[in-house]
Design a protein that fits this description.
Order of helices and strands: HHHHHHHHHHHHHHHHHHHHHHHHH
Radius of gyration: 26 Å
Helix content: over 70%
Distance between the termini: 66 Å
CATH class of one domain: Mainly Alpha
Number of strands: 0
Number of helices: 25
Largest sheet: none
Shape: globular
Oligomer: single chain
CATH architecture of one domain: Alpha Horseshoe
Length: 465
Amino acid sequence: MESSLIKEDDLAPDIKKLWLKALSAFELRNFDYAISLLGTVVEREPAFLEARKALRKAGVHKKKGEKKLIKLSGGGISSMKIQGLIKKDAAAAMAECEKALVKDPYNIATNQALFDASQAAGFPEIATFALETIREGHPDNTKNLHQLAEHLLRQDMAEDAVKIYDDIVKRDATDMDAVKGGKDASARASMAKQKWDANSSMKELMVDSDEAQALERKNRAAMTNDQLLALRDDLAAQYEERSGELTYARELADVNERLEDLPSAIQWYQYAITLSDGDPNLQRKVEILSDRAGDVEVKQLRERAEAATDPGEKKELEDQLKGIVSERSAKLVADARMRKDRNPTDKQLRFELGQHLFNAGEFKEAIPELQQARSNPHLRIRAMLILGKCFEENNMLDMAAQEFQGAASELTSMDEMKKEVLYALGCVLEKMDRKEESLDAFKQIYNADYGYRDVAKRVEASYDS
C-alpha cells in the first residue's frame, strides 16, 4: 500500500525551517515553544507524521512538569463538534484534535477523534498513530487494542496485527475474540508471504488439516527449541520441491536465526537475496546477522583467552582477539559510513555510525553523528548517552554531565536505560569533584535497584566516612 505521508525532505522550505526550529527547541527542553512551532507544522502539513509524533512527545514532557495530570471527564473534545467538523473539513478536524491533545496527550476520546478524522482525510498511518498513542497511555485498554488490530488488518499489516492480538491474550487469556483474531491474522500473514490469491477463501486454502496444522505451527508466537528443530526438518524435506522459492529461503533463514544458527541463517538470507534481485531489506538483514555472528566470535575468543593457563597460548589468543576486534571495528565503521553517505538525512544511520565510531575509540568523529541522531525522538536518549560518553572520553566533563542530566530528566521510570544514564552521570560528577551531586545520582539507583553494579558499595560507604 502506497503511503500517504511525506518525509522531511518533501517539506516546503518555510515549513522545514519551522520543523528544524522546533527540534532545536525540543532539545533545549523549551517545550512550550516547540509545541507552538510543531502545532503550526502539523496544521500546514498534516501528512508529515514525524512532526505529529514530536508534538505528542513534547506534550507528554510538558505534562511531566506538572504536579498532576488533569483528567478531563467526558473526553477532551466534544464528540458532536468533532464529528460535525470531520464532515466539513477532515484536515481541520485533525488540527482541532492536536490542539486538545497538547493539554492531555493520552486522552482516549480525543485520540479516537483524531483516528476518525485521519481516516476521513485519507491518512491511515496517522489513524494508526492515534490508536498507538492510546495504547501507550492506557496499555490495558483492550477495546482500543482490538480496534488497533482490526485497523492494521485493513491496512494489510497482518504481522503487526498478530503482535497486538498476542498482547491482548497476554493480558486476558480468556479473550476468545483475540485468540481467534490472532489465528486469522497469522493465516493472512502467511497468505501474503506465499503470495496466495487474496480472493481465495480460507476454507479452500486450508482444506488439508495437516497443512493447516503446519501453518499454525509456523505462526505460533513462541516455539520451543524442539519445535523449531522439527520445523527446520520439515522445511529441509521440501528442498527438492521448493528450492527456487523466495518464501522458502526466507522461512529457512528465519528458522535458523531463531535457533541462533547464524552461519546457516546468513547463508539462506544470502540465497534469498539472489532470488529477490537484491532486496535491500534482506541485504540489511545479512549485515545485522553478520554483526551478531562477529559478536559471538569475539565473545568466544575472549572467553578462551581468559580461561587459558599456558602463558604462550594466552598471549597468542589475546593477540588474535586484538586483531579481530580491530579489523571488525574498522569494517563496522566503514559499512556504517557507506550507508550514511547513501542517505545522510536518515537519523538512524547517523546514530549507527556514531555508535560504531565510539566503539572504535574515534570519539571526536562520533560527536557530530550523534548530535544529528539526537534530534530523532526515538533515538534521542541513546544518542545522548553515547554523546555524553564521547565528551567524557575527550575530558569535556561539564558537557558530558549536561548531556547525562538532560537524558535523565526525560526518563520517567527507573528502567535499565535510566539506571545506566544516572550511573554515567554519577561517575562524571565524581570526576568533577561534585561529590554530593554524584552521590545523589547513585542514591536514585540505590532506591530502585540495590544490586545494580557497585552503587550499594558507593552509597553505603558515604555513610561510613
